Amino acid sequence: MLSRSLHNACDRLLQPIARLSERPRLVALLLLLFFLAQLAVIAIRQPWQNPNTWQLGFEVGRIARNIALGYGYGSPFVVLPGDVPPAIAASSTDSRSATAPPAVVVNHPPIPPTAYVTPPIVLVWAAVFALFGPYSPASIFVLLALQCAFMTLAVFLLHRTLATTLGPRAGGLGLVLLITYPLSWFGTQDMRGEILFLLFLSLSLCASLEHLRGRRIAHLAVHAAGSALAVLTMPKTLFFFIAYHIWMMVRLRRDAPATVPTASAGRPSVLWQYLAAVVLAALLSWGPWIVFASINFQRPVLFGTGLSMQFWLGNNPTVPADPHRSLYANFPYENQAERSLVLSLGEMEYSRLCWKRFFDFVRDQPLMYVWLTARRTFAYWVFNPDYLRPTRLLLIPWYLAYLALAAAGLYRTGWRNWNPLEQAIVIFSAFFPIVHFLSQCNVYRYRSPHETLLVVLVASVAFRFCACAETPNQQPPSAPTAERPPSASRSVR
After folding, report:
1. Which pLDDT belongs to residue 15?
2. CA-CA distance, 41 to 61, in Å (whole number)?
3. What is the DSSP string of 98-147?
4. Cα separation of 114 and 116, whole Å?
5. Rounded distance, CA 336 to CA 314, Å?
6. Angle between helices 137-166 and 24-45 (to 10 degrees)
């Protein structure tokens, strides 16, 4: 009886939110206010007056600067005349030196090509630098404003995903939770590429679930393009998208007999359509980058060379004593010896050296590697010392509360009853962090896309809890394909 009353009370609380979500103009107004509020925070903080603003985007910024100045897609580790070496203020939670190593200024530096960072975020920065000047106050404002726009669009897409999967109440609840989650505000105040990845991820997720509902070619194309661009933006997410594409094909095959014509009907099967779309999108997005990088380095290059450095930075003899400090102490933009090494060897040879260093460390200290991996897993899921800053302390209890709510909701529902959106987020949670566990996850922003999807998961399980109070004929669709099965005549468009 008490449980029933609690369900009914929660359901009544969702009624105003439902009305909000059912009014598109009100949703648009709320998103506009969310965007403008983020801009207001930027205007109040005035990050262009802080010399450390560019540090989070150091590699991306240097490559974009090189493009804007006509040097091409060149190495971020070459110091140009007038460059200010990295100087990051030390604090109680950040032991990086307040002074940078002496810069080696080259009058006419030959800038070798780079594959350290893949192009999507670099090209955005390069376009802004070309229009407003490299590292100018106007560039800082425009780039941060673009990040706010990317976050706002991602919130809208995730809201739409919830609304189309579970109904307007779930969409409204997700919208409110997303725009009030602290990371939605703090995350846009730093120069970083995770938000662009989140936008592509949200686009792919929304389109894929729409494709499960209606089997429309347009949704499939958007899903394939979004996933390909997301991987190109963050290659370390490849594990997740492989698993996600497999899951999509399993669901498509499971639902195909009743909803989709076979290949014998004169059209390719739904699975072949899906594979063709994914492969084509991958070729169109990755192909130019692979050709460009492979020509520059005269050897095959699939993604970026920075991954090897991340594995070595997180796993070397200096890490056990101080994992946070070691990440920066050995990085080429702060370590003069490493910077000279990468420029003398060349980026590809330096990448091979980093892989060798990493594997040597694992071979020589396997138990230490296991301990570091366990430590990183704990830091990712539970607590990261990088959060011990005034602007991030609020994130700790908020995140832990949401994590507990999501876990409790999923357990209560049972895995057989998870809706497609919940299944997709669980797959993301299982595969997205793998590279971070194995390499390094000392920076809080690495988890930010995961936290955003966690908010969506909380909205889903909370709505399903409240919906239990409804009568059977009022229950929302937990399985969208059963709610609106597409007919054979319109299954392929």
Report:
1. 65
2. 23
3. SSPPPP---SS----B--SS-HHHHHHHHHHHHHH-TT-HHHHHHHHHHH
4. 6
5. 19
6. 150
Both tokens of 372, joined, read 């570091």
CA 268 to chain centre: 33
Q: In DSSP terms, which residues pair with 113 in a beta bridge?
A: 74
Number of residues that make up the chain = 493
Amino acid, single-letter form, for residue 68: A
Average pLDDT, stretch 481-493? Answer: 39
**What's the rounded Cα separation, in Å, for the pair 149 and 31?**
10
What are 99-105's contacts with CB under 8 Å, separation 24+? 100/334, 101/334, 101/335, 101/336, 101/339, 102/336, 103/79, 104/79, 104/336, 104/339, 104/340, 105/79, 105/80, 105/81
> Beta strands of 252-311 (E only): which ranges?
none
Quote the crossing angle between the two packed helices 24-45 and 168-180, to the nearest 10°: 10
Q: Which amino acid is at 107?
A: N
Q: Amino acid letter at 100?
A: A
Taking only the tens place, the pLDDT of each residue in 221-258 is 999 999 999 999 999 899 999 999 999 999 888 876 54
| Tokens 């399993």, located at residue | 250
Q: pLDDT tens digits, residue range 290-344? A: 898 888 888 888 777 888 888 998 898 888 777 666 677 788 877 888 888 888 8
Please report where in the chains the tokens 């809201």 appear, as a residue.
159
Q: Which amino acid is at 145?
A: A
Q: What is the DSSP letter of 94?
A: B
State how far the Cα of 429 lies from the Cα of 441, in Å rounded to an integer. 15
The rounded distance, in Å, linking the Cα atoms of 276 and 256 is 17
3 state DSSP class of 365 = coil
Sequence spans of domains, the chain: 2-490
Terminal CA-CA length for the chain:
49
